[in-house]
């Protein structure tokens, strides 16, 4: 089960209010190609973050957690690969908040359609 605590909620709330999909030189991300795309991508991520903030006290299952993230990834598929990459970097931030070290190939699958680590 994945549970919230005060520290996690504070980090999620900080991420929620951040303006997303703007240029980020550290990540070599040029920013969304238009304000409309930026707002759509940001909204998809904010829905995920808000759902995580609203997690019931009993917690959510890992499947529920990954299902939330996958909904956002589905939105990013309609845009340029840069938006998908930036969306996945936000998901990695969320994974860090929850001390989740691996997506078990999910992020690669959402990005590339398969997990290159399993393509031997």
Automatic annotation (TrEMBL):
Gene3D superfamilies: Uncharacterised protein PF16133, DUF4844. This is DUF4844 domain-containing protein. It comes from Shewanella yunxiaonensis. It comes from the Bacteria. The lineage of its organism: Bacteria, Pseudomonadati, Pseudomonadota, Gammaproteobacteria, Alteromonadales.
């Amino acid at each position: 089960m994945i549970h919230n605590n005060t520290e996690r909620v504070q980090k999620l709330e900080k991420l929620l209010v951040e303006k997303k999909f703007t240029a980020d030189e550290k990540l070599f991300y040029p920013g969304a190609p238009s304000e409309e795309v930026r707002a759509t991508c940001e909204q998809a991520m904010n829905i995920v973050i808000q759902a995580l903030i609203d997690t019931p006290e009993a917690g959510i299952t890992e499947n529920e957690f990954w299902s939330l993230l996958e909904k956002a990834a589905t939105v990013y598929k309609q845009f340029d690969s840069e938006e998908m990459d930036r969306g996945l970097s936000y998901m990695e931030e969320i994974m860090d908040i929850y001390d989740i070290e691996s997506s078990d190939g999910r992020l690669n699958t959402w990005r590339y359609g398969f997990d290159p680590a399993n393509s031997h």
